[in-house]
Structure formats: C-alpha cells, structure tokens
Design goal:
By secondary structure, the chain is of the alpha+beta class. Helices cover 39% and strands 27% of the residues. The strands form 6 sheets. Strands 12-13-17-18-16-15-14 form a 7-stranded antiparallel sheet. A 6-stranded antiparallel beta barrel has the order 1-2-3-4-6-5. The chain has a 3-stranded antiparallel sheet with strand order 7-9-10.
C-alpha cells in the first residue's frame, strides 16, 4: 500500500483514492495511519476520511496546502465552541502532523452507527417524521445561538444521530458572532440560511417547528417574528440559487468544465467516462447514427443509445447567415437549457436530468450548440391523458407542477402538453430553453397566464379535461399576485 506525503496528496488532486497510508507525528512519535475510505475531498486542501491507527478506527480531517494551519485551527476552535455551548459533538482525540511537516491531522471519534439528519430527512416517512427532524435541529441551533455561536454553513448534514443521540459536526463552520445571546437579527438570518436549504414546498413547516426554537431561546410571543424569518428565508434562498447557478458553469467537484477559443463544454463529473468523452468530442457523428426524434431548421433532437444508458442530444442549429449573426453574441439556447435544468433541480421541480452542454465557438462568437440529457421513457401528457378514461391522478400531478412553477415565478415559454413526459413516478418538464424566472410581479403574471392559455388549448377537443383543469388551476393567478 502506498504511503503518501503532503506533496503527493496535493498532486493527486481529485484522483486521490483509498486505501493509502500516511506517516503522522503524534506525541513526538511517528505512527502509520491507514486511510480506508474518503468521505469528502477538497483537492489540495482537505481530506475527510475513515482511517485506522494503532488498531483504532478514527474519523480524520487532513489539512494540506498553504492554508492548512489556518483551517486546522478554525476546526479546533469550532469544536471547542460547540462543546462550550453544551451541545454534543464527536470527541477530538488528538492532533498530529504529517511526517514531512507540511500538513495537519485532527483525529475524531468515529461514530460507526451515525446517520446524518439529511439522510434521515431523505428517508422520512411522512409529514410527522419530517417535523420531528426539523424540531430536533431547531433545539440544537437555539442552544448555539443562546451562547452567541452560529454555524455559518448550516444544513441538516451537519447533524448526526448515533445511538439516539444528536451530534453537531463541522467545527470549521462554527464561529462566535456576539456576546451571549445572539441578537434577534443575527439569529433569524442564520435560521433563514438553514431553511433556505429546503425546497420551497416545505416552507409551510417553518411555522410548525419555529416555536421549538423560540422556546429554547426563551422568546415570548411576537407576531412580527415569523414574517421576518420568512423574509430571511427568501433572501438567503435567492443568494444560494444565484451562487448555485453560477457554479454549474465552472470546473468544480460536481462539474467538469473545459473552455477554449473553439469550444465551451461542461458536464456532470459523475457521468463522465470514456464513452461520454467520445460523444462530447463529436456529437454530430452520434446524431447521424441515432434515432431522430425531431429534425427541424433550428433544432435536431436525437435518441442515442450508449452501452449503459440512453441519452437525448438536442442540437441547436444555425439555419442561415442571418440567424447565425443574431445568435453569435448571445448565450445559446443550450446554455439556457442547462441553466434552467439546474434551476428546476434547486427548486425541487421535476424536469429532465442534464448531462452535458457544448457550445461551438470562434472566440466570443457562439455557433452550433448541444444540450445532452438523460432519456425519460413515457408518453407525453397529451397522449397520456387522451388515452385514459379517468386521468384525475395524472391531472392533479400536472397541476401540482404548475403550482410549483407559479410559486417560483417561472414561465415555461412553450407550455404544450407535449412538453411534459409522464414518467412512472410523475410528470417531467422538458424543452427548457425558453423558460424564464421573473422578478417583476406583473411581468410574471402576464407570462404565466400566456403559459396557462397555451396549456389549456391542448384540451379543446376534450371539454371534460379542460373543465377539470380549470378547477385545479383556478387560483394560480391569485397565487402569483400574493407571492
């Protein structure tokens, strides 16, 4: 098994893989630490892993690079702040240095049976379980706030359940913001950050679990507090969304991005393999040998079967010189599709799953572009509903998607029934290149009503479906006005 020093850990970057060994100096003695599983990797900076040393299993955090000492000290300080607040956190067992002196290691007790509250949330069965999870988080956050301490990266994954005990982790994100207790404005801002991690559909839970926080803080009744918290949630969510959508066009842990004078390419790093690399190098060759789903002047859509999956390639064509001139300096429709797919993901609205996006370029001039997504089997909504005698379940599912779009102030731009695929687990929105999110309230209402009119026109020959949809969607414009 290889023994790696700090330089080798840095050089390995994202390719670092367990198992491997490190020589660690602890209590003036050199010991061998065996890394068994990597949990989190920030290339050239930090490694969080399961490791074994002297027969003991440990959760280790390894800090390397120029900022190693700074972030190691921040973690140690944060762990002490959590403990000082009377909040349970995994014990820091020891601090060591890499044998070459160019890195630090913090060793924590390993909670073998631990499950994060995020994982518990993902598997929660129903409303009551979700409320119980959020209530426990509220109580811990309140105790931290009581002593003037905040978690700057506050989310459910930073809470662990082990043997029915709740632990708070990630001392690196913990800081003292004020003398105890934390002021109301700072408290609500931090809570706004926490609730902004959830999809908007869960916002109604805030009023149910917030009293648990208020009780620990000893706050009396105040009708203005909950509306203020809701404003903080919206503000934090908007900031997170902006940062999230910026990240989908950058090379990072999740995305592989390449940019040159001739091409811009970004794809999901987890999807990237030799076969996808071949497709991205020459998508036209794959389109020429694929099943063509649509062949128009401005778009060509092809179903491509790879060895392990089926993908849909949507090529945005340049039909003539005038069209090319109009599109040359604008973000391509493939760019908008890629961005909007992740906008839907962020908001928890089901849409097609993006895999990659390519723009052919000549310097700043954009030319042909490609949007690649997973293939979703199933009929479109028009075919599905017209083939059913009683499509009530399917209609309610479609209405729910429209309600989510409305609440998020998003217009689709071409809301035909054929732009919904009725997958086994519910409707999926496709054709995202004309989708737009609005800040201005009146502009949104006009655009969304246009969407609704286009959607309702699908059912002109089925008046019973049109009538049912009219009832299901009757209050959507009112929701738009009150948002």
């Amino acid at each position: 098994m290889n023994t790696l020093d700090a330089e080798q850990l840095i050089e390995a970057g994202r390719e670092l893989a367990a198992p491997f060994c490190m020589e660690v100096i602890r209590d003036s003695q050199t010991r061998t630490l065996t890394v068994q599983q990597i949990f989190r990797l920030l290339p050239g900076k930090r490694i969080v892993a399961l490791a074994e040393c002297c027969g003991e299993q440990l959760l280790i955090k390894t800090y390397i690079g120029r900022t190693a000492t700074k972030y190691m000290a921040r973690e140690r300080n944060g762990v002490n702040l959590i403990a000082d607040a009377g909040v349970r956190t995994p014990s820091l067992l020891w601090h060591g240095q890499l044998a070459d002196g160019r890195g630090h290691i913090l060793a924590f007790e390993y909670l073998e049976s631990a499950v994060s509250l995020f994982d518990s949330w993902q598997t929660a069965e129903g409303y009551d379980e979700q409320v119980a999870i959020l209530t426990r988080a509220m109580q811990i956050i309140a105790r931290l706030h009581n002593v003037g301490v905040v978690q700057d990266d506050l989310h459910l994954a930073n809470f662990l359940m082990a043997d029915n005990r709740l632990y708070t982790i990630d001392g690196g994100g913990i800081s003292r913001r004020s003398e105890p207790p934390l002021p109301r404005s700072h408290s609500l801002n931090n809570l706004g950050l926490f609730f902004a991690q959830f999809f908007p559909t869960f916002d109604e839970m805030v009023r149910v679990v917030f009293p648990a926080y208020e009780a620990i803080r000893g706050w009396g009744a105040d009708a203005s507090r909950l509306p203020e918290l809701r404003r903080e949630i919206l503000r934090n969510r908007e900031n997170r969304k902006r940062n999230y959508l910026d990240k989908v066009f950058r090379d990072c842990t999740r995305f592989l991005c390449r940019s040159s004078l001739k091409e811009f390419m970004v794809c999901e790093r987890s999807e990237y393999n030799a076969e996808l690399e071949e497709l991205l190098a020459d998508p036209d060759r794959f389109i020429d040998n694929a099943e063509i789903l649509k062949n128009g002047n401005t778009t060509t859509v092809a179903l491509v079967n790879l060895s392990d999956r089926a993908l849909v390639i949507k090529r945005y064509n340049i039909k003539d010189a005038v069209h090319g001139l109009k599109r040359a300096l604008r973000k391509s429709r493939a760019w908008h599709s890629w961005s909007n797919a992740f906008r839907m993901e962020f908001l928890g609205i089901r849409s097609l799953k993006p895999v990659a996006m390519i723009e052919n370029r000549l310097g700043p001039i954009r030319r042909t572009a490609y949007f690649i997504s997973e293939y979703i089997p199933g009929p479109d909504a028009l075919e599905c509903l017209q083939g059913l005698d009683n499509p009530d379940k399917e209609m309610r599912a479609l209405a729910e998607v429209l309600q989510q779009l409305c609440k998020s102030r998003i217009s689709h731009g071409d809301l035909k029934a054929t732009n919904f695929v009725m997958a086994e687990d519910g409707p999926v929105i496709i054709d995202l290149d004309a989708m737009e999110e609005y800040r201005d309230h009146q502009q949104f209402v006009r655009a969304f009503n246009k969407d609704l009119n286009r959607f309702m026109a699908n059912w002109d020959d089925r008046p019973e479906i049109a009538s049912h949809f009219s009832g299901l969607l009757a209050d959507l414009p009112l929701q738009a006005r009150s948002h």
